[in-house]
Design a protein that fits this description.
Structural class: alpha/beta
Bound molecules: S-adenosylmethionine
CATH superfamily: Vaccinia Virus protein VP39
CATH topology: Rossmann fold
Oligomer: single chain
Number of strands: 7
Shape: globular
Radius of gyration: 16 Å
Number of domains: 1
Distance between the termini: 31 Å
Helix content: 40-55%
Strand content: 15-25%
Strand order of the largest sheet: 3-2-1-4-5-7-6
Largest sheet: 7 strands, mixed
Length: 218
């Protein structure tokens, strides 16, 4: 993870919040060489899910289930989280972790392209996490726009940085320029511009982890 917080700020956030459970701590070790959302964003996602009283959650890009585990902790027993993942092995790991936490009964595991899987799931969703291929973000937003419940939220990870996008180009695009961009950078920039200018959403970018864009569905 390319953390945008200064080390001292990150230490402060760690020290001021409670430790995650043993399974999450183990997942953090497993995730040392994998781009999870990271602990600070995970905590924030759980809080967000609790704040909107989430019953149904959809994830674009679940990896081995780290972000899904945080969400699952906030769901009621009859709640549902849909995990999507290209990689069968990662999805199998996600199932094992969620089983260990006692959350597998509220999880739906979908192997394949998240941008296709969303078409098989009706809304409304209370929370959507967009965290898959960066050039697929605009399509994901279009697909969920009318499936997010009023009062719900869409969260996009890597709103600011990742190992594969150009921060300066995204900033230039947001400020009204039209720089040459690779597909991933363009995907993030187009997502942020679209959601910013859509009157159905109210967006705030929170500089936790790699930056998350949190868009409230009016
Ligand atoms: C950044 S990781 C997700 C991390 C996860 N949200 C977490 O915090 O634990 C992105 C994952 O999305 C998967 N992925 C990328 N594009 C995808 C797509 N179109 N459909 C499904 N999975 C995809 C990748 O295989 C990878 O495991």
């Amino acid at each position: 993870m390319t953390d945008i917080l200064p080390d001292e700020t990150r230490r402060f956030l760690r020290a001021a919040t409670s430790e995650p459970d043993e399974t999450l701590r183990e997942m953090e070790e497993r995730g040392e060489d994998f781009p999870t959302v990271g602990r600070e964003v995970g905590q924030f996602l759980r809080l967000l899910a609790r704040a909107v009283d989430a019953k149904r959650i959809f994830e674009f890009g679940s990896g081995f289930g780290y972000s899904a585990y945080w969400f699952a902790e906030a769901l009621p027993e009859d709640g549902e989280i849909v995990l999507t993942e290209y990689d069968e092995d990662e999805l199998r790991e996600a199932r094992e972790y969620l089983e260990r936490g006692g959350f597998a009964d509220r999880a739906v595991f979908e192997n394949g392209d998240a941008n296709e899987i969303i078409d098989r799931h009706d809304g409304p969703f209370d929370v959507v996490l967009v965290d898959h291929n960066k050039d697929g973000y605009p399509e994901a937003l279009a697909a969920v726009r009318d499936k997010v419940a009023p009062g719900g939220v869409v969260v996009a990870d890597n709103a600011m940085v990742s190992g594969i996008q150009d921060f300066d180009d995204i900033l230039a695009a947001l400020e009204g320029d039209d720089p040459e961009m690779d597909d991933e950078t363009r995907g993030i920039a187009e997502y942020l511009l679209t959601v910013r200018d859509d009157p159905a959403f109210e967006t705030s970018v929170v500089p936790l982890g790699e930056g998350i864009a949190v868009s409230y569905r009016k």
